[in-house]
UniProtKB/TrEMBL annotation:
Protein name: Uncharacterized protein
Keyword set includes Transmembrane: yes
Bilayer-spanning residue ranges: 20-44, 50-71, 83-103, 109-129
Record key words, sorted: Membrane, Transmembrane, Transmembrane helix
Species of the source: Candidatus Buchananbacteria bacterium RIFCSPHIGHO2_02_FULL_45_11b
Length: 133
């Protein structure tokens, strides 16, 4: 096999997502769609109640939900920006949940575990960063 053929073969391998990444992308897309569907009514109700705190929290939740959909599309196409956007979404979420977990008298372990899963997924995606274009 000459160098040109080998280079083309390597490029095809470089830009093809793994099966695990495809599963993560599908799950991320589903989460984004479900959260968006539930977030729109929550935002409308918050506007009706005129509670500024509830409006802000609902808007942030809706933005994150749409972000999951956008990131899923980027990961599927193996775009580097999607890894960066996912990291930007996960890191603040992790800090907020950790702060709430340690400062609250009630310990909700399921939220803490879900953030742990997001961190593991982030490290997995970061380990594949060189394969993204």
């Amino acid at each position: 096999m000459d160098q040109k053929t080998q280079s083309i073969s390597e490029q095809g391998q470089k830009n093809k997502p793994s099966v695990f990444l495809l599963i993560l992308t599908l799950l991320m897309f589903i989460i984004g769609v479900v959260d968006t569907i539930s977030g729109v009514p929550a935002l409308l109700i918050s506007f009706a109640s005129l509670n500024i705190g509830f409006i802000i929290m609902s808007a942030i939740s809706l933005i994150i939900s749409v972000g999951y959909i956008i990131v899923a599309g980027g990961l599927l196409k193996m775009k580097k920006w999607s890894v960066i956007v996912y990291a930007v979404m996960v890191i603040p979420s992790t800090l907020v949940v950790s702060f709430n977990y340690f400062s609250s008298p009630e310990k909700d372990i399921t939220t803490f575990v879900s953030v742990g899963v997001e961190i593991v997924v982030l490290f997995y995606i970061l380990s594949l960063y060189k394969k993204f274009k």
